[in-house]
Design a protein that fits this description.
Number of helices: 21
Strand order of the largest sheet: 13-12-11-16-15-14
Oligomer: single chain
Shape: rod-shaped
Radius of gyration: 52 Å
């Protein structure tokens, strides 16, 4: 074969583009492909280095020798000769496996492809391209396995070039993306996906191409053309691919759909969040026995966690404690107790004003909710639904402008009675209310309903106790000789604490006056009733012109006969002509004497035992009460607290009574504002009297001194 038939090497340094050059370690090297050239007689005239690896002979040992004798067993030579002659005669190539005898005496199957060559001089040669069948089968198996793994894998797999254009996608990725492979090839990910996250995905791929550091199990959530209406989650990995010579050929992308796992995790997280919300509601709803505050607590729990706007509406008859088991299909009167919003919006203005009463007909959803005692869920509200939610057409239009798209009403039920409804709407929150939301809202409503029911009954008891209390207390001070009087009663905020404090001013014979203040131990309507009986009895005993100690002794017997009742009491009688005051104490706090120009002082009295102990002695103490002098009687709610010693509080009382002087009514209000804390849980009764000069024509004897 002439030199003109030989080929020079190609590769780096040859002046050819790198893309044209062969890569060391390429597929041919992997297969161990060798080349042998025979002349027309069958002698070996060319022997490639790879042939030495396949057959075991060096080029020096092989060149010039007959191939059949060197490489074939004797029994195979005739067949080989015929095949060789056919190729040389016809020019058609032949391919197949043939047993070859190696230099070491072993026999192995070698895959051959034989073709006829002709040079520019017209000489004919035979080219044999050979590879070990074992190696070839291994490569074929690997390729076949790789192809099957990629095509049959449930995992989405893609190969992208260095410009991040798709070179290959497998069927699983076609299904995930909802596009055939042909619509991927040559396109970038951003050309296929419109998710905002696709930009960061391509950035990650470029980083992987640049650094070679793979990114494993990156979590993505988004939508694809395969399911454009629902979010899916994927675990994606990226790794750089290299050719046999180490050249970077692109980046591989594997995608595993983990939507079910994502939804399960989201649901678990949602369940934990709901439990936390219920726990928070348990701590925050019903902190007081106030109906309005309990309703506000429920509303504040629900926004923005569950809704954009919520309202708590209670049947007006329920607040009045008028229970009716009669079912009817007419309208209902609702009192709005609370409204809360996640952000300012028109829907808030469309809600009923807190404290107002509104009538809703039977066609309204909130009325249906309380009539049936069942929730009303409208996942997707339309214009007609809004008309049945709002109080009128203008309000319905406001809800529409606010973007309201979902509605839920849950009845407030306690002790088998429907109290009202808990209404929720969504506007900015795009998720419609679903069954899970309904379960959570029902749980919150059930807890709140019990608290509201307790609060309304306690409030009713409080109102009853206060009404009873005020009905027996003096509505205005009587006209007294030589004595100006002012009084103030402040009921407790909690219904369970009201009812025991009282005061009275009783005109007596001879221009004298009785001043009384007392406190029944206990609370509620029972204490108010006991107080009423003691006050009535005190007036009866006072009419007998008894000494203060005798009045207390009779009251003690009466109280002991009332069972478990105990009360404290101060009873004082003032004679304006003698400017003399006589007082007896039954376990009550000492009164305060305030003289003009002098510091107020606590009167030193025998404390005595409370009324109801029975069989105890009471003493009367007398002192001067001159014109301008003031005497303050009060109950313990004015000074007693849970965190300060009583001595400090009594000192604060004396300081509050010090100069400058105020009118009597203003003094009562000043004492209450100064000494009573907003959170104090007790009644307060105040009675302050100031001695006045008496006309000379009616004046009696000069004042006495000493007790």
């Amino acid at each position: 074969m002439s030199s003109r038939a030989s080929a020079e090497g190609r590769g780096p340094g040859t002046g050819l583009p790198e893309a044209w050059s062969s890569s060391a370690g390429g597929l041919l090297d992997l297969l161990g492909v060798s080349a042998i050239v025979l002349d027309v007689t069958g002698r070996i005239v060319f022997w490639s280095p790879q042939a030495s690896e396949v057959f075991g002979y060096s080029s020096e040992e092989a060149l010039g020798r007959y191939a059949a004798r060197l490489l074939l067993r004797e029994e195979d030579r005739d067949l080989a000769t015929r095949l060789f002659a056919e190729v040389m005669r016809s020019g058609e190539s032949w391919a197949g496996a043939f047993p070859v005898l190696r230099k070491d005496g072993s026999t192995q199957l070698v895959e051959f492809r034989n073709v006829r060559l002709q040079d520019d001089l017209g000489d004919v040669y035979a080219l044999g391209i050979a590879a070990e069948q074992r190696v070839l089968e291994q490569v074929e198996n690997k390729l076949a396995l790789s192809e099957q793994l990629v095509s049959q894998a449930p995992v989405g797999i893609a190969l992208l070039d260095t410009d991040l254009r798709y070179l290959m996608v497998n069927p699983a990725l076609e299904r995930i993306n909802g596009l055939p492979a042909a619509d991927h090839l040559g396109r970038h990910p951003r050309d296929i996906h419109d998710s905002p996250a696709v930009g960061s995905v391509e950035e990650v791929m470029r980083e992987v191409l640049a650094t070679g550091t793979p990114v494993i199990d990156q979590y993505l959530v988004g939508r694809t053309p395969a399911d454009p209406d629902n979010d899916h989650a994927w675990s994606v990995s990226y790794y750089r691919l290299h050719g046999p010579a180490g050249r970077v050929v692109g980046v591989a992308n594997s995608v595993v759909d983990v939507t079910e796992r994502h939804r399960a995790a989201a649901e678990a997280d949602r369940a934990r969040h709901r439990l936390a919300l219920i726990a928070d509601a348990s701590a925050r709803i019903g902190t007081t026995l106030e109906v309005e505050r309990t309703a506000r607590e429920l509303a504040q729990i629900a926004v923005p966690e569950l809704a954009d706007v919520v309202a708590v509406d209670v049947l007006d008859s329920v607040l009045a404690c008028r229970r009716s088991d009669e079912r009817h299909d007419g309208p209902e009167l609702f009192r709005a107790l609370a409204v809360a919003a996640a952000y300012p919006n028109e829907a808030t203005g469309a809600a009923d004003e807190v404290g107002s009463v509104a009538a809703y007909g039977p066609d309204r959803l909130v009325t249906r909710c309380v009539h049936t005692a069942r929730p009303v869920l409208v996942p997707h509200t339309g214009p007609e639904d809004l008309l049945h939610i709002a109080r009128d057409r203008d309000s319905a239009a406001a809800l529409a402008r606010a973007g309201v798209h979902s509605y839920l009403a849950v009845p407030l039920i306690a002790r088998d009675q429907v109290l009202g409804a808990f209404d929720l709407i969504r506007a900015r929150n795009q998720a419609p209310f679903d069954e899970d939301d309904l379960l959570l809202v029902r749980e919150l409503a059930a807890r709140a309903a019990v608290a509201i029911d307790n609060a309304r009954w306690f409030q009713n008891v409080r109102d009853s106790a206060e009404s009873l209390q005020r009905s027996v207390l003096p509505t205005h001070a009587p006209r007294l000789t030589g004595l100006e009087v002012a009084s103030l009663y402040q009921p407790a905020q909690a219904s369970s604490e009201i009812g025991g404090d009282w005061y009275d001013v009783i005109p007596l014979s001879g221009d004298t006056s009785a001043l009384v203040v007392g406190d029944v131990m206990g609370n509620g309507i029972d204490a108010a009733a006991t107080m009423g009986r003691l006050l009535t009895a005190t007036r009866a005993y006072a009419d007998l012109d008894l000494e203060p100690e005798d009045v207390l002794r009779h009251l003690d017997k009466l109280t002991a006969g009332l069972g478990q009742s105990i009360a404290t009491c101060l009873y004082a009688v003032y004679d304006p002509h003698r400017h003399r005051c006589r007082v007896a104490n039954a376990g009550h706090l000492p009164p305060v004497l305030a003289r003009p120009g002098r510091s107020p002082e606590l009167l030193d009295l025998q404390a005595g035992a409370p009324l109801g102990v029975g069989g105890v002695r009471f003493d009367t103490t007398a002192f001067d009460l001159l014109p301008g002098d003031r005497l303050l009687l009060y109950t313990d709610g004015l000074v007693e607290t849970r965190d300060q010693p009583i001595d400090e509080r009594l000192g604060a009382l004396l300081q509050a009574l010090d100069e400058p002087r105020r009118p009597l009514e203003a003094t009562c209000r000043h004492l209450l504002d100064t000494l009573r804390h907003p959170g104090d849980h007790d009644d307060v009764a105040l009675l302050i009297a100031q001695a006045q000069p008496v006309a000379a024509s009616t004046a009696g004897d000069a004042p006495e001194s000493g007790p």
